[in-house]
Amino acid sequence: PDEPRDARVVRELLRSMGLGEGEYEPRVVHQFLDLAYRYAGDVLGDAQVYADHAGKPQLDADDVRLAIQAKVNFSFSQPPPREVRPTTANPSYSISSLDSD
Q: Mind listing the UniProt keywords for this protein, alphabetically (predicted)?
């Protein structure tokens, strides 16, 4: 009852994933909240930069969407296709070169 609403939401999220009380350490809730607050702060900070750059007096939903998309594009990049990787790898870093040392 004295628990903050955000912590209750995280516990409910964990419960919806099949994890009951005692199946995770209590600090998991705090770690998740810290991550969420930091992420939201970063996104809103980036959105404010975009709004300032556009000369807007305040940020709006488009600025937030752009900040989220930029964060997703930067954070979750895909590796190159399998066909490209062998041609771009440096042969001097192969496993066999490590064995010869």
A: Nucleus, Transcription, Transcription regulation
Q: How many domains is the chain built from?
A: 1
CB-CB contact of 33 with 8 (8 Å): no
Q: Is 90 exposed, middle or buried (0-12, 13-18, 19+ CB in 10 A)?
A: exposed
Tokens of 79: 């590796």
CATH number at residue 41: 1.10.20.10
The three-state secondary structure class of 86 is: helix
Whole-structure pTM value: 0.65
In whole angstroms, what is the distance from residue 72 CA to residue 39 CA?
11
Average pLDDT in the chain: 85
Q: How far apart are CA 43 and CA 70, in angstroms?
A: 9
